[in-house]
Task: structure prediction
Amino acid sequence: MTTIRFTRRAFASAAALAAASIAAPALRAQGKLEKTRIAIAVGGKPAFYYLPLTISEQLGYFKAEGLEVEISDFAGGAKALQALIGNSADVVSGAYEHTINMQAKNQFIQSFVLQGRAPQIAVGVSTKAMPNYRTLADLKGKKIGVSAPGSSTNMVANLVLSRAGIKASDVSYVGVGTSAGALAALRSGQIDAMSNTDPVMTMLEQRGDVKIISDTRTLKGTQEVFGGPMPAACFYTHTEFVQRNPNTCQALANAIVHGLKWLQTAGPSDIIKTVPEAYLLGDRALYLASFNKVREAIALDGIFPEEGARTALRALASFDPNIKPEKIQLARTYTNEFARRAKEKFKA
Result:
């Protein structure tokens, strides 16, 4: 049985809202928002990696929390991070590992709600450019497409190559985005291999354009590549922002967890009707095939697994000499405070 603890102030607020909630059930206030207009940066919004963000936006869950969000889409996660560091974004919908990378540079950013519990990134070799591919060693000196240099797709490629003794400097990384441009780059021969998300990778795979050599689109594949659970997309921001805007962060977490709850029971037709038409890349059947492949990788309740943070740190330290595990305070890279409240609210 769940125990709910009310402070005197929270109890008074709940009582005051009781009658109003009958007339306006979508209104779920939980303390005055410090900021109602929020700029969110994301790198590759059409990807399934960020599906919870799109669902929460399209179904009006941010508005239901009293938020007006402006979502700016960049070529990749590294560009979205730059927007946060440059103060043109309040929050990033991006990969969790950026919180570790930035702490290594003595800049503290914190994740506060999880969207993905597996990276959903596959690495594939072009069957046209490298028809005789045999081992990872064949990729030395080749051009590898990633969403953007420094992004999560780049990190996964670095990790996979490092296990064959190949350094990042031994290949050339090319930013190709996460949608139609990525498809075109591989099919036209601009790149020899690609590390990217779905639906792009499933579309290339099903049409025989790539041979998949590493896959984190499932929980099993993620375990094989990373040796443990690997948190993926999340909302993160400056630690100071979380401290100064707790009610706003709670509202953002609520909106995402609400979207995650919806996704737990949504059918293929629900997804098709909700996402923008352009996200389907002109092929509904392949889009849905991609969704079925990554569905289990979507977070259930927004909560970060403690072991997942340790997995991410091990993975980054394995190929990046700038990451010193003993100097990273993982407890400062994420908080489950907001996701737990949201989970309780929506029974996710």
User: Anything to note?
Assistant: The longest helix spans residues 246-265. The chain has two domains: 29-118+230-346, 121-226. The chain has 15 helices and ten strands.
